[in-house]
Design brief:
The complex is a heterodimer of chains A (about 475) and B (about 450). Chain A contains 10 helices and 24 strands. By secondary structure, chain A is of the alpha+beta class. Chain A has 2 domains: about 230 residues, PmbA/TldD fold; about 230 residues, no CATH class. In chain A, strands 1, 2, 3, 4, 5, 6 and 7 form a 7-stranded mixed beta sheet that branches. A 6-stranded mixed beta sheet of chain A has the order 11-10-9-14-23-20, covered by helices on one side. Chain A has a 5-stranded mixed barrel with strand order 8-15-16-18-24. In chain A, strand 16 and strand 17 form a beta hairpin. In chain A, helix 2 packs parallel to helix 3 and helix 4 runs parallel beside helix 5. The N and C termini of chain A lie far apart (about 65 Å). By secondary structure, chain B is α+β, with helices and mostly antiparallel strands. Chain B has 2 domains: about 220 residues, 2-Layer Sandwich (PmbA/TldD fold); about 220 residues, no CATH class. Helix content of chain B is about 25%, strand content about 40%. Chain B has 10 helices and 19 strands. Chain B has a 6-stranded antiparallel beta sheet. In chain B, strands 7-14-15-16-19 form a 5-stranded mixed barrel. In chain B, strands 10-9-8-13-18 form a 5-stranded mixed beta sheet, covered by helices on one side. Chain B starts with a helix and ends with a strand. The chains are: A alpha+beta (about 475), B alpha+beta (about 450). Chains A and B meet through strand 1, strand 2, strand 3, helix 4 and strand 5 of A and strand 2, strand 3, helix 2, strand 6 and strand 15 of B.
Chain lengths: ~475, ~450
């Protein structure tokens, strides 16, 4: 079946007999479960700056991570050398977490077949000619410079990878996958009368290079948006400071959900009782307009996966349904401890890392409000269109996300652009203040990377236009726009 | 693997690249061992131990360059790396500023920097676990309101790095690192069951430099406890005291703003300000590559250049940018030995030990000098624009009333512009400690906007 990736069997001569031996070593001190995570990742990246290709890099990283579970305890070791003696040595190190008689090693491993592939691509990006990738970054550079004479600096980054994984568990399951990932990013600096401003934009996904042939994903699209943002910001005023009505544009502003609720719903924090959402399943955490899902199965999205990094199939998980908290994001260990089912959210950065619950693509379902009507309903507030990063304190629930393109709303009209500002709120209550949800759900363009405990993984977000009745905007202009003071 | 072996690998790969047609080449080889354990509520939560290595090659073909990396050290893999790097270099742009340092820039610091301590690798696993257990237990025992914990983590790692280039430079050095940290959770049973979390940590090149595990645990507990009952304040413009931990992040923004690559692209609010007043007169910032046991110390940087002590800001005046060879050539300056390179890609610019020089007053005296203001103990988010200097971050800490810490504050932002922040640093504390490559004492900044209610 084509969904089985035979990479490690073919290129490294790995056999099911080898896997059994390694698992036997991992269980040699007892423990109730062990798994092996083989990874081979090929990457290539380009940097264009000052219209020159300043950096071109290719690389290969590979290795095997061995995890041993004994109750709630995890032993972990890895080797970047796939020689059998090195893997056996790592397996014995990982095994030391347990202290008991050896468990009978697994016999009769069977490779799990899948009939779906959420990221079928015509040709893996790493196989395409360097010249094609160079042309993408050069096109972006030209388009950004052609957009406006005030654009002074353009930096374009391109990165792709193809990751082969094989996961073998002591439950007898062997799961494989081949995961492509591509990202193009453009950042610009505009200059006018000695004043400088910056803009950035990008996109990609689990796609081939043909992704960039569509007008809405073209290098020119990302470049013009990055240039437009910098030029708009040249006219930006001080951002307001204080609580006010905030309208979030569709798409990438969905980072709100990622920070405000997503992290707090990861099951590791909840089984330990250290999340602001701990013990709140079934309770109201959002207005009834809000239904939030985490869906790892959307074709070709940056956050999608056929299987998670523990070999569990990904799913569409409803986190909040009409305002009521429905579930957490689970990995194997948390699901075991909480006696519930896995949700396909066990992820890791690489073979060097222990898996943990992570988001995939997190978004809010569309509502029925007209986006333009939502803006017209605001007397005085902020319209936030594009964001940089965000962060959350999962225990207190306080989260931030930083607007890089935003405008004032005055008497129902979007007016002046304002400088970048951080928005801060409280995760368990912010969505209860959502008073309108547009019918215009959009997913982001494919640039998100999420960090947790030192591990980065690609993710997606999405949002329709929404109105939050009050949220603190961290600008510097208290008098002009702080009606609540 | 020994240092000599890594040097030999690096030299061999440089030779292969030159034989295959590279005009110049350099190689970085890194090999390391890592250990970490987390103990939570007295039980081992995880135990991780592994070694890894990587090989990074950069080649030049004429004035074009490219890089390739791999963890496979076999001869066949090296040939593949050379072949791929050369092919990519031929497709890259000609760039007169590129390439290896000038020969007379190369060199290494001859003195002992005390970067490696064998005790880090030698502590038995059982003792490491015991340290984590003691640190966490001290937090749990500190107060009945500490009812939960994210655990204590003990880390220990050693790294050997070798660098060689086709100008004949070859060198290597070892370093070690260890840390203990605790994250405590405080629960306020009276105030609606609200939880607060905070952490504390201790780091060192050698295990002997670590604080007492109990002291780390108690400090984490105190920090979490003082956040209980935190509230928002009304939007206002007040003096803000950054504790030493959050002041480090301010110093980090200055580092980003004096990086040569941001300067030649005009992507920094400090571009073109060399020799000008950019900060209050009491502000002196140094980047010292030679501090014994320093986390940013090294005998040579990742291009084979000996780092020294670079005065970045002296008495408020901007004296130097921080440069690698590429940025130095772009700006017609000499490298400051700040080349920093992962295995993948060309050398970037990283800090040595980049720090704000201490003042005379204690943190308590600085807080007492403020009638109404915010004492910031944690900052979150990424709301810093280095091009414009615009600054807006999520903050929590304690409200200062008449020189006393009055009540905890959360869910507010602090905002201003970094150019103004630097010129409005009116007090610098005496409490400088080196706990990373960036270091700062407590600072007082006049007039930031606190946005809350």
């Amino acid at each position: 079946m084509e969904s089985v990736d035979r990479f490690f069997f073919e290129y490294y001569g790995l056999t099911e007999r080898d896997l059994e031996r390694y698992l036997g070593a991992a269980l040699s001190a007892g423990a109730h479960y062990a798994d092996l995570y083989f990874e081979h990742t090929t990457t290539s990246s380009l940097l264009l700056d000052e219209s020159l290709i300043k950096s071109a890099t290719e690389g290969i990283s590979m290795g095997c991570g061995i995890r041993v579970l004994a109750g709630e305890q995890t032993g972990y070791a890895y080797s970047d050398d796939l020689a059998p003696e090195k893997i056996l040595k790592a397996a014995k190190i990982a095994a030391r977490i347990a202290s008991g008689p050896a468990r009978v090693s697994t016999v009769g491993l069977s490779t799990v077949e899948r009939d779906h592939n959420f990221y079928r691509v015509a040709a893996p990006p790493t196989d395409r000619a360097l010249e094609e990738k160079l042309e993408l970054v050069r096109r972006a550079d030209r388009a950004a410079r052609d957009y406006d004479p005030r654009i002074g600096q353009v930096r374009v980054t391109y990165a792709d990878q193809v990751r082969h994984i094989l996961i073998a568990g002591s439950d007898g399951r062997v799961v494989t996958d081949c995961q492509p990932l591509v990202r193009l990013g453009v950042s610009t600096i505009a200059r006018q009368n000695g004043k400088l401003q910056s803009g950035s934009r990008g996109g990609g996904g689990r796609v081939g290079l043909d992704f960039f042939e569509r007008p809405q994903h073209s290098p020119e699209h990302f470049a013009r948006e990055a240039a437009r943002q910098a030029v708009v910001q040249l006219e930006a005023r001080e951002a307001p400071a204080g609580e006010m009505e905030v309208v979030l544009a569709p798409g990438w502003p969905g980072i709100l959900l990622h920070e405000a609720v997503g992290h707090g719903l990861e099951a590791d924090f909840n089984r330990k009782g250290i999340s602001a959402f701990s013990g709140r399943i079934g309770q109201r955490v959002a207005s009834e307009l809000c239904t939030v899902v985490d869906d790892g199965t959307i074709p070709n999205r940056r956050g999608s996966l056929n299987v998670d990094d523990e070999g569990s199939p990904t799913r569409r998980n409803v986190l909040i349904e009409k305002g009521i908290l429905r579930g957490y994001l689970q990995d194997r260990l948390s699901a075991e401890v909480m006696r519930t089912s896995r949700t396909g959210n066990g992820r890791r950065e690489s073979y060097e890392h222990i898996p943990m619950p992570r988001m995939t693509n997190t978004y809010m379902l569309a509502g029925s409000d007209d986006p333009e009507e939502i803006i017209r309903s605001v007397k005085r507030g902020l319209y936030a269109v594009y964001f940089g990063g965000g962060q959350v304190d999962i225990t207190s629930g306080k989260f931030v996300f930083s607007a890089s393109e935003a405008y004032l709303i005055e008497d129902g009209q979007v007016t002046a652009p304002v400088k970048g500002a951080t928005l801060i709120g409280d995760g368990p209550t912010v969505l209860t203040r959502v008073t309108a949800v547009g019918h215009d759900l959009e997913l982001d363009e494919g640039i998100g990377t999420c960090g947790k405990e030192g591990q980065s993984v690609p993710v997606g977000v999405g949002l329709p236009t929404i109105k939050v009745s009050h949220l603190t905007v961290g600008g510097t202009a208290p008098k002009t726009a702080s009606p609540i003071l | 693997m020994s240092e000599a072996y890594l040097e030999q690998i690096a030299q061999e790969l440089v030779s292969r690249a030159v034989r295959a047609g590279a005009a110049a080449a350099d190689v970085i080889v890194r090999e390391g061992d890592e250990f970490s354990t987390t103990v939570r509520l007295g039980q081992i939560e995880n135990l991780k131990e592994a070694g890894s290595r990587v090989l990074g090659l950069r080649v030049l073909v004429g004035m074009r360059s490219a890089s390739a990396y791999s963890s496979d050290f076999s001869a066949a893999s090296m040939d593949r790396l050379v072949e791929r790097a050369l092919a990519m270099a031929r497709a890259a742009s000609e760039d007169a500023a590129g390439g290896l340092p000038d020969s007379d820039w190369l060199g290494r610091h001859p003195g002992e920097l005390e970067l490696y301590f064998s005790d880090v690798a030698e502590i038995p696993t059982e003792r490491r676990i015991a340290i984590a257990r003691r640190a966490e237990q001290a937090a749990l025992d500190a107060d009945p309101r500490i009812k939960n914990s994210e655990g204590a983590v003990v880390e220990a790692s050693t790294t050997t790095k070798a660098y060689a280039n086709s100008l004949g430079f070859v060198g290597s050095y070892r370093s070690s690192y260890c840390a203990v940290s605790v994250t405590a959770i405080a629960l306020d049973s009276s105030g609606g069951g609200r939880m607060q979390r905070d952490y504390w940590y201790s780091v060192g090149r050698g295990a002997d430099a670590l604080d007492d595990p109990e002291a780390v645990g108690r400090r984490a507990a105190e920090r979490a406890l003082r956040r209980l009952g935190a509230r928002k304040v009304a939007t206002c413009r007040v003096p803000v005291v950054f504790d030493a931990e959050t002041a480090r992040s301010l110093v980090g923004h200055v580092f980003e703003a004096v990086r040569g690559d941001a300067i030649y692209r005009s992507a920094s609010f400090l571009a073109g300000k060399l020799g000008e007043r950019v900060a209050a007169e009491n502000v002196t910032i140094l980047d010292d590559g030679l501090r014994p046991r320093g986390f940013g110390s090294r005998p040579f940087d990742d291009e084979g250049v000996a780092p020294g002590v670079t005065p970045v800001v002296e008495n408020g005046r901007l004296q130097s940018y921080l440069l690698n060879t590429y940025a130095a050539r772009k700006l017609n300056l000499r490298t400051t030995g700040n080349a920093a390179r992962g295995a993948s890609g060309p050398p970037a610019i990283g800090p040595k030990n980049f720090y704000l020089a201490p003042g005379a007053r204690t943190p308590d005296a600085i807080i007492r000098s403020v009638s109404h203001g915010l004492y910031v103990t944690e900052l979150i988010g990424f709301g810093v624009n280095l091009v414009t200097g615009d600054y807006s971050r999520g903050a929590s800490g304690l409200w200062i009333e008449h020189g006393e810490l009055a009540f905890p504050v959360e869910e507010v932002t602090i905002a201003g512009n970094l150019a103004d922040i630097l010129t409005h640093i009116t007090e610098i504390g005496s409490d400088l400690e080196f706990r990373g490559v960036l270091a700062a004492p407590t600072v007082l900044v006049e007039g930031l906007t606190v946005a809350g209610r």
